[in-house]
Design brief:
With 164 residues, the chain is of the alpha+beta class. Helix content is 33%, strand content 27%. The protein has one domain (7-136).
Length: 164
């Protein structure tokens, strides 16, 4: 008489390959995130301290700067993309003015040479180790966002007074 597998063992046999694939995708996405940071520094011709990785919380909001690229976590979004944050810190060392811009970037590796990205709800595909189209999109998004500031007019900055 054959031994019947428990329902748990039946499910385990189905789940384990999925778990292994998810872990491998996570490891690959994490390597890609670090590679993107390093390559974007080169693409922009920026100093390394001006482009930083950021961890996101479970709501995909900026949580904390990554101090050690070997020790950070990506967050799995509801869309099955692995997400991380990328900060671009714009400043002039001779001026007290600066601006920090954050990008939320999602990665799906699909175990193929192409990688799918989700940036600001725009999806694109790049070949592994060639992220120029991603970098062009980030650059153009920033350029468009900030190039029209002269038409915005002056803005008042201050505090609201509560009369209560």
């Amino acid at each position: 008489m054959p031994i019947m597998k428990s329902k748990y063992n039946q499910l385990r046999e189905i789940v384990m390959p999925f778990s292994i694939k998810r872990t491998n995708d996570y490891i690959k996405a994490k390597k890609i995130a670090v590679q993107i940071q390093q390559e974007y520094i080169k693409y922009l011709g920026a100093d390394s301290e001006n482009i930083n990785l950021f961890m996101l919380n479970n709501d995909l909001l900026i949580q904390s700067k990554v101090e050690n690229p070997k020790n950070f976590n990506l967050v799995l979004g509801n869309d099955n993309y692995w997400y991380f944050g990328l900060e671009v810190h714009y400043h002039d060392k001779s001026s007290p003015h600066f601006l920090k811009e954050y990008f939320k970037i999602g990665i799906i590796t699909n175990n193929s040479p192409s990688i799918e990205f989700n940036v600001s709800k725009t999806k694109m595909t790049c070949n592994e180790n060639n992220y120029e189209s991603l970098f062009d999109a980030l650059f153009n998004d920033s350029k468009t966002s900030y190039s029209d500031f002269t038409e915005l007019g002056s803005r008042k900055i201050g505090f609201l007074k509560d009369d209560n």
